[in-house]
Specification:
By secondary structure, the chain is α+β, with helices and mostly antiparallel strands. It folds into 2 domains: 4-100, Fructose-1,6-Bisphosphatase, Chain A, domain 1 (2-Layer Sandwich), CATH 3.30.540.10; 113-215, D-Maltodextrin-Binding Protein, domain 2 (3-Layer(aba) Sandwich), CATH 3.40.190.80. Helix content is 31%, strand content 30%. It has helices at 4-20, 50-54, 124-136, 147-155, 169-182, 194-197, 208-213, and strands at residues 25-28, 32-34, 40-48, 61-68, 71-79, 84-89, 93-96, 99-100, 113-116, 140-142, 161-167, 185-186, 199-204. The chain has an 8-stranded mixed β-sheet with strand order 2-1-3-4-5-6-7-8. The chain has a 5-stranded mixed β-sheet with strand order 10-9-11-13-12, sandwiched between helices. Helix 4 (147-155) packs parallel to helix 5 (169-182). Its EC number is 3.1.3.25. Belongs to the inositol monophosphatase superfamily. Keywords: Hydrolase, Magnesium, Metal-binding. It comes from Klebsiella grimontii.
């Protein structure tokens, strides 16, 4: 699903980036790739959660990541409805507006709520076993329609983690940087050319990541 707003916001963001950094590459959900082999690549989803946006739900965001020499170094998720800017820089930590963030301190999945997402790019058989395992261990989950926003919530400790069996890079990379810089873990999302094809994404604290990984019915990259 795409709206006029998606296209216009991406065109605006892309033009501002290209004007300021003409040597950089750009990968956008709506407009595709420009200079993908550049040393610095900007990866943008103008509205993650378009269905929510179009239906008056306040769970959508702008998500942005920057790769330098193929390494994710900046992650940004902006929630304009609540004026919350989640941002992280490799080696410098992660923040919500001006406050540092950290993953949820839970020791087990019973102690919080897990964020999950899925799409028609994968079959239910790849996703439902995880929910079964999570619920069987006493956990609970939510899905709010924006994987990028739930990833940011996980990095900020509002959720115990986030899992999606396939996530596109413009939605997955910002949360990956946020979680790593907040002190948590993620899988190796960019393996097997994840920047072009996407991959599964699992984010959680160092304590919960192994527990959640063991609930998956397929190996993570």
């Amino acid at each position: 699903m795409v709206s006029v707003a998606d296209k216009r916001v991406e065109a605006f963001v892309k033009q501002r980036i290209m004007d300021a950094f003409p040597q950089d590459g750009f990968l956008g959900e709506e407009s595709g790739t420009q200079m993908p082999d550049a040393r610095v690549l900007w990866v943008v989803d103008p509205i993650d959660g378009t269905s929510c946006f179009l239906n008056g739900l306040h769970t959508w965001c702008l998500s942005l990541a920057i790769l330098a020499d193929g390494e994710p170094v900046i992650g940004v998720v902006y929630d304009p409805n609540h004026r919350e800017l989640f941002h992280a820089l490799k080696g410098q930590g992660a923040w919500l507006n001006d406050a540092p963030i950290a993953p949820h301190p839970a020791a087990t999945v019973k102690e919080g709520v897990m964020g999950v997402g899925t799409s028609h790019r994968v079959t239910p058989a790849l996703f439902l076993p995880f929910l079964d395992a999570l619920l069987s261990d006493g956990g609970m989950f939510i899905r709010n329609g924006s994987g990028a926003l739930m990833s940011a919530w996980a990095a900020a400790g509002r959720l115990i983690g986030y899992y999606e069996p396939h996530m596109n890079p413009w939605d997955g990379l910002p949360g990956l940087v946020l979680m790593r810089e907040a002190g948590g873990l993620s899988n190796d999302y960019l393996t097997n050319d994840g920047i072009r094809h996407g991959n599964p994404l699992l984010l959680a604290s160092k304590t919960l990541y192994p527990q959640l990984k063991n609930m998956l019915c397929h190996p993570l990259p």
